[in-house]
Structure formats: structure tokens, C-alpha cells
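Handout, section B. The chain below has 455 residues.
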Amino acid sequence: MTRDWLWGGALAARRDVLGFYRACERQGGLVRTHIWHLPVWVVTAPELIEEVLVKKQRCFIKSGALRSTARAFGVGLLTSDKELWRRQRRTIQPAFHAQRLAGYRTLMNAAALRLCESFGDGGVRNIHQDMTDLCFEALAQSLFGEDMSEARPLVAAAAEALHQFHHLHAQWVGAVGGLAFAAVRAISTALGRPDFVADPTLLPTSYSRRFRDATAALDRYVTRLVARRRAAPGGDDFLSMLLAARDDTGAPLSERQIRDEVVTMFLAGHETAASSLTWALYLLAAHPPAAQRLAAALDGDAAGAGEREIDRVMREALRLYPPAYRISRTAVQACELGGHGVRPGVEIMIPQWAVHRSERFYEEPDAFRPERWTAAFTSALPRFAYFPFGGGPRTCIGNTFAEIEGSVAVGHICRRFELRVPPHARIAPYLGVTLLPHDNVLELEVRRRTATRPS
């Protein structure tokens, strides 16, 4: 990793940010570098990750990179901090209560069966598109109580524009544009505002313009949706909860707050699940022995054997291809980390991608080995050596929802179909806000199994 006085790790990160994170992990649990003199610390030691996410979490807020996309997420649950975040979490948590999750499973089963029926006898499928459609249908039916077919293309366009904006803006910061970015951050930190973020979506670029247009179209839909639900109150879904919620003073949530939570759920509530399912099915297709073990477990008579094997597959897929491939934080209070003083304005990078592939914790870290996830192995693993859903108070609110979705989708598909990677396929991750296949395309050969257990 370069330590050039001017650009620090900027060029290495721009060339291959996942490789950059792994190089940092191999150097030790805490690497201090900079991006055009913006101080950046890459944290990969589990005990230090716990310091940031749990023990000293009040010293940090969500990163400037995430907050710079406020035009999409606003100050919804994903991007808010401190007391506002705590109020939002209390409001939204009932939507993910265990009793509701049981009902969601029924809806997910129906959606997964419809998808399997659409496969027919098989063929080459863009499995990422299939998983995205499935996860959006499950989200719409479970959390909003309707199919929301009108919203689907709007959410897809906004998500694609968001990922492209995030990717290209990161490339711009890694190049000489990072000089301007770092200068603004240095000035705002010196003035006592390490949390300040300029709005890069106002830049006169084609990808900024596309992002603004796609977000505006989605906003118009949400405005109509909220108005329609206000005119017919009394529902029991996620949006109805938001409309009925009151803050500590007894006042209803503002229109903007409701919009931010709905859009956050649209974008974050199905994209990460679709990504994890896509990579899991790809890994099974690329490793026939693992797929055969899963199929045998699903067909077997042993109680719970199929569920246990799916759990191992999903754990291993989330280890190798975590949808949230890094967690970023901005220091807003002085504290200490690993014996070093952290001053306000420091950017903390916690890359799941590198920690999950560390030789310190995993034998053959780049190999797909679901069988590694025994009870003994899991209990011996350090707490933050595996954290696909984050950790501490900010653990993903939908983690159990996603786990159920993964179990249902993988179970139905692998019970009925065999998957193969097409010859000459070149598959690599694309770094948007989440870890995606390039161009949102990951094609797999799908063939109906000749013998299946009755549903």
C-alpha cells in the first residue's frame, strides 16, 4: 500500500478497494493512512471493531460517504444518528416483531413458489433480477400489504442510479477530486463541524443528474402512496405504523420523516437481501458438491436437516460476499482506539470483506466451505470476526427478516432445480452501496431436478 505524502492510499483504493482493504488487514488490526490528507483508519481487529461499534459508538456517526446520499435516504433509519435514530428504531421495531415475522414467512413462501413456477423447466436466467423481483415482492406484501407493481420500476431506477452515483463518486474522490473533498472536510472540521457533508448530488455530472431525476420520480410515488393511505386509515402494516406514530411530545411524524423511512425501506429493505441470495445461489452453482449436499438434506427425512444446511450455506455466502462490504464511521468526539488518539474528522473504515476473508480466523478463507459452520467453530469465532449485518446498537433491523427470506428462497429453488454457472462466465462484484454483480446481471443455468420431494 502506498504511503505517498500527497495521496496516501487514494490511488490504491481507487484501483481495487477490496484489495486495498485486504492489504490493510494483512498489515495488522489497525492501519492509519489518509486519502488526500483526509485521515482514514482501516480497522480489522475484532476487539477494535467492537470499540467503534459498541463500546465507544457515541464518538462516531454514519460516514460522510453514506450521508452524502441524503437526497435518497434523507434522515431515515439507515443514515440518522443519536437520539433521532433511537426514536426511529423504537417506532419501526414492532414491524419486525417475532409474531409478524411468522406471517411474513407465509407471504415469502407464496412469492418463492410463484417464482419457481415461472422458471418452467429451466434455462439461462439472470438470477440477480429474479432475486431482486422476489425480494421486492416479499417486502411489498410483508411490510406494505400490497403488491406495489407501480413502485417496482421506480425503485429499480432509483437503486441503479444510487449505486452508480456511489461508485463513480468514490472513483472521483480516489482521483484528484479527492483534493477538493478533503479540503472541505478539513475546513469544516477545523470550524467544529466534522459532521458536515456537502451535497455531491448537486454536481453538474450526468450521473448526479440521473440520480436526482430517479429520486424525484420515486418521491412523487411515495407522496401519492402516503396520501392514499391517509385517506383510508386503519391498516396494520409498516406504513400504517408510521402514520399512526407519535414522537415524545405527542406530535405525528412529519411528512418528510415518513417519506425518508418509506424510501429507506424500499431501497435498503430488498436490495441487500437480493444481493445475498444472488451470491449464495452463484456459490452453489459454482460448487456442485455443496449443492448436492444441500439437495440431499432438503430431500432427507431428518427433522430440520434442510434448514440447518441452508443456514450453513447462507452463513458462508454472507462471509464471502457480504452485501454491506464495509462499515464506515466519522469520528465526532475525541477518543482512543488501539492506543492511538482519534480526533474528530477521522474516517473509520471497517471492511467486512477483509475481516471475513482473514487467515487469522478462517482456514482457506477464500474457499466456499459451508461445512465449516459447526457449533464449535461458531462459538470459538471472535464476536466481530463475522458481522454481515453490522453489530452493536446499529445491527440491521431486518436481519431476521433477511434470514427467513434466505431460508425460504434457497430452500424452494434448490429443492426443485439444479444450478450451474454458464461456460465462459466472468463474474465479479461491483461496488455500489452494496456488493452487486456487474450491470445487475448474474446468469445461471437452471435445470429442473429429475426427482424432487413433494412440497
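Note. Residues 255-286 form the longest helix (32 residues). Compare this with the example in section A.
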